[in-house]
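Take a minute with the sequence and fold tokens given here and flag any structure token that looks odd. Thanks in advance.
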Amino acid sequence: MTENELLQMALNLGSGWKVDYVEFNPDEKKLHIFISTVKGSTFECPTCGNQAPIYDHGRERIWRHLNFFQFETCIHGRLPRTYCSQCNGSPKTIRPNWARERSGFSVYFEAFVILLMKAMPVKKVANLINEHDTTLWPILHHYVEEAREREDFSSVQYVGFDETSRRKGHEYVSIFMDLEKRKVISVTEGKDQHTLKGFKLYLFLKRNVYKSSFR
């Protein structure tokens, strides 16, 4: 097994991809991995999910990956566009299995970032991994919203709430809790009636009901 094949397995690129070559920049202390599609490969159509041939490739993109040893690692590649005969539409850019759409990080790197965020503030995480915090907040927001979408509040019957000061200057957040399960189900800025009405609407939508006796 060659070093490129070993890296291809470690990156979990999936079928249709190969590692072309690797560059190490000793001044930057960065490892750059260049990948490309395998000739004749087919990819899943982003619209219908059928396998479709490659139509062309977009511009080169870069995704930051987990460090190899102590060195920052970046994946370089051009995502292919497929033309699906089933959809009869315009060519569509595929969704790679190693990164989210419009993300500059691999899913492995994002998982590592989320793990760090559970233990320390975002600013400290950014300093630790040599990234700006503004590039990390979208990662946190994405996975928080994804988790919120999966929440099931159908059994929630009794809700309690309280407010607390977020910082000096009387900036408040309201905390809503499922009293039976002793679990926080929402944290929202503000503490007035609009905050309560917003939570009620959110709960109703999550429970998929239009009327409720909740007071």
